[in-house]
TrEMBL record:
PANTHER family: OUTER MEMBRANE LOLAB LIPOPROTEIN INSERTION APPARATUS, PTHR30634:SF14
Region (Disordered): 691-716
Pfam families according to UniProt: DUF5682 (PF18934)
Protein's name in the database: Uncharacterized protein
Length: 732
């Protein structure tokens, strides 16, 4: 007589996984059905491959979506997932294993909008925990299931509890469809002659799978469901994506802790705290074996006081904080990051189905020795080295495909031969690679096609310059001609000076990096030369008559162009730009105070003005409107307070202007001054304050340093010794 056993589990729980493995070994099924998409039946045997290292996930995606909206779904598995243990048991025992959930082809089609889930269906464990006197559902489940060692099987009790909870509750439409398909799969297994069938599913579904529901009713439920084409594969997953804080609906609070509970079959508390001590020692924190012993005692004492069968994560964390970390919170956070989440990236076998673009990226990662990792790390690249240059190009090409495995950050080096990247691999990148495979079968080919498309669809000049810069950084020479033609055409017809100025920084960076990377930039140089001339000619009418918001926006363009031309280091262009700024200052009445102050500062830094104190005196004179004077000061002092620290005359002018403001005017200009001085580093603000504090005692002359009383007779021996050390005077 056939027998069907339904094992209700929590999707990621070490106690459930361990209990399920033991129950399967006792039951000895001749077929195992697991909650999951049946399209994965064809690739489930890959789970037994030695190269398959969890955490991993089944990925279902629609290769050709009818509405253009590509959809995908993941079914993650960790080492401590009961479903994973069921699959591994079946494969090792030579027993057929199938997935029994509603097909992904149906699940990837959005279901009709349903009313909000009721509290019971949304959180059944919370109701059971509340009935047991717990205020934390996860802690209750840990105590009754995950922390259990030995004893009777928990599955009959789980089934009974879920049956009571569901009671007369009507299932939601999608839930009813899923459970109907699970029952249909069970019936098919029995028709095929299997006599001992084990079904592994979420505990909530157990009563529905045990219920005697006619096959005809399930057929009606499943008849006519919309579906789409799907493809299925395995992809690496991470513990971070198993955590509930990632937004994963079936996530757990502490994947690293659960993995430890599953892997450490004996003395888990001692092993965990020993590992925590090792982590702290790696950070040069003193932790002795005595600390570990006391922490174990404290964790066990806390568990006994709280009536728990085993110290849980809360207890070991409190013991870690109190004993190993001596009350400090930062070391606790280190352990949280490295152990509680326990971030790790799984691996899939080479023979796993992949699109060609994924295989090409894997080949490039091996060739360039750039391994993906679930832990964030910095990668410094020296572009003078061929391997590092190729790594940089690969990362830039992936960014062109919106696969942001690497994010460029500010390099610690001041030269252009170095790049610093922050690398972090996310499981979603596999979906993005599948989507990007529409552009080509290799990373280079796909990013080239994507660059051409981006150039053709760009509507703003700044967008085109960004594409050109990314092409040069990624060494996409085949895409550059199309991009440069589009860029030249757009620049020729765009008459908005603000657009031209916004486009220039990216083009200049592209030129500079093109030189470093050995990329041909001739056409780009022609465009830049033309832009500089047009900006300098069109600047006067564009920069006059601006209101406050427009002036602030235009100020950003001015600073960006000024910095870009300094980076370009073309003396002809720099001189043309400076003459244009000098021409603007010759008619200051037409300029916004913010703009006039900033242009004055730029020309002062360039050594082109020798009357800056007089200009500031006029700008902040009694006859000037306070708001315009404040804007002038803000523009002039933007970018740092070093000028005020070293120029006594300018500091005095600003001080006297502020001190002489009427009370109502001071209130009006205070936000502008606060914004200006608040942007300075604390050390600069402190130095400026010290200079102002000493002004009453210091000499008024700009170049007269304070005089110190020096006893020349007492200083003579020290001076002679210093001269002798420096070799400036021979010993007598």
């Amino acid at each position: 007589m056939s027998q069907v056993e339904v094992f209700g589990v929590r999707h990621h729980g070490p106690g459930s996984a361990r209990a399920l493995r033991g129950a399967l070994e006792d039951f000895k099924p001749d077929a195992v059905l697991v909650e999951g998409p049946p399209e994965a039946d064809a690739i489930v045997e890959l789970a037994g491959d030695p190269e398959m290292v969890p955490p991993v996930a089944l990925l279902a995606y629609s290769p050709v979506p009818a509405d253009g909206d590509r959809r995908a779904a993941f079914w993650p598995f960790a080492e401590f997932s009961p479903e994973w243990q069921a699959i591994r048991y079946a494969l090792s025992a030579g027993v057929p294993v199938r997935f029994c959930d509603l097909p992904a082809a149906n699940q990837l089609v959005p279901a009709e909008e349903e009313p909000p889930e009721e509290g019971l269906r949304l959180d059944p464990l919370g109701w059971l925990a509340k009935a047991a006197g717990y205020d934390d559902a996860e802690r209750w489940w840990d105590d009754v299931v995950e922390h259990r060692h030995g004893g009777p099987s928990p599955f009959p009790a789980i089934a009974e509890a879920m049956a009571e909870l569901r009671g007369e509750l009507e299932p939601a439409a999608r839930e009813e469809q899923r459970e109907a398909h699970m029952r249909r799969t069970v019936r098919r297994a029995l028709r095929e002659g299997h006599e001992r069938v084990a079904v592994v599913c979420g505990a909530w579904h157990v009563p529905a799978l045990r219920a005697k529901v006619p096959a005809a009713r399930d057929d009606r439920t499943l008849r006519g469901l919309p579906k789409t084409r799907v493809a299925m594969t395995w992809v690496p997953w991470t513990h971070g994506r198993l955590a509930g804080r990632s937004g994963y609906g079936a996530g757990v609070r502490s994947p690293g802790w659960y993995h430890h509970l599953f892997a450490a079959r004996d003395r888990p508390i001692e092993r965990w705290l020993t590992a925590a001590a090792r982590v702290l020692r790696e950070e040069d924190l003193h932790v002795s074996s005595a600390h570990v012993i006391e922490a174990v005692r404290l964790a066990e004492a806390l568990a006994a006081l709280r009536g728990r069968p085993l110290a849980g994560l809360d207890e070991v964390t409190e013991a870690t904080r109190a004993v190993l970390c001596e009350g400090a919170e930062l070391p606790v956070r280190i352990i949280q990051d490295r152990m509680v989440v326990g971030e790790r990236l799984g691996a899939v076998p080479e023979r796993t189905p992949m699109v060609p673009l994924q295989r090409d990226l894997q080949a490039e990662q091996r060739r360039l020795r750039l391994r993906p990792s679930a832990l964030e790390k910095e990668q410094d690249l020296d572009l003078r080295k061929p391997t590092d240059l190729e790594r940089s190009r690969l990362l830039h090409r992936l960014r062109m495909l919106d696969v942001n495995w690497g994010v460029p950050s500010e390099s610690r080096s001041k030269g252009t031969f170095r790049e610093t990247w922050t690398l972090l691999w996310r499981p979603e990148f596999d979906v993005e690679l599948i989507e990007a495979s529409a552009w080509g079968t290799t990373v280079r080919g796909a990013s080239t096609a994507r660059a051409r498309e981006a150039a053709g669809s760009a509507t703003a000049l700044a967008d085109l310059t960004a594409v050109a810069e990314r092409c040069l950084l990624a060494d996409l020479g085949d895409a550059l001609p199309a991009v440069m033609r589009a860029l030249a055409d757009r620049a020729a017809v765009d008459t908005d000076v603000a657009h031209l100025m916004a486009a220039m920084p990216a083009l200049v960076r592209a030129l500079r990096y093109g030189d470093v990377r050995g990329t041909s930039t001739g056409p780009l140089r022609t465009v830049v030369d033309g832009l500089v001339v047009r900006v300098c000619v069109g600047l006067p009418p564009a920069i006059t008559g601006l209101d406050d918001d427009a002036a602030r926006e235009f100020l950003g363009h001015v600073d960006a162009v000024h910095g870009a031309l300094s980076l370009l280091a073309d003396e002809g262009h720099i001189e043309r730009w400076r003459r244009a700024l000098e021409g603007l200052l010759d008619r200051p009445g037409a300029l916004h105070g913010l703009i006039e102050g900033r242009l004055t500062r730029l020309l002062l830094d360039a050594g082109r003005l020798d009357d800056v104190p007089d200009r500031m005196a006029r700008a902040v004179s009694v006859g000037a409107a306070p708001d315009r004077a404040a804007a002038w000061v803000e523009g002039f002092l933007a970018g740092g307070g070093l000028l005020l620290m070293h120029d006594e005359a300018l500091l005095r002018l600003v001080d006297e202007w502020v001190a002489g403001l009427p009370a109502d005017s001071f209130t009006d200009v205070l936000p502008l001054l606060r914004r200006t001085f608040g942007a300075y580093p604390a050390a600069e603000r402190r130095a400026i304050g010290e200079r102002l504090r000493r002004r009453g005692r210091a000499p008024a002359g700009r170049d007269r340093p304070p005089e110190d009383d020096v006893d020349e007779a007492r200083a003579a021996p020290a001076a002679a010794t210093a001269l002798r050390i420096l070799g400036w005077e021979r010993p007598a």
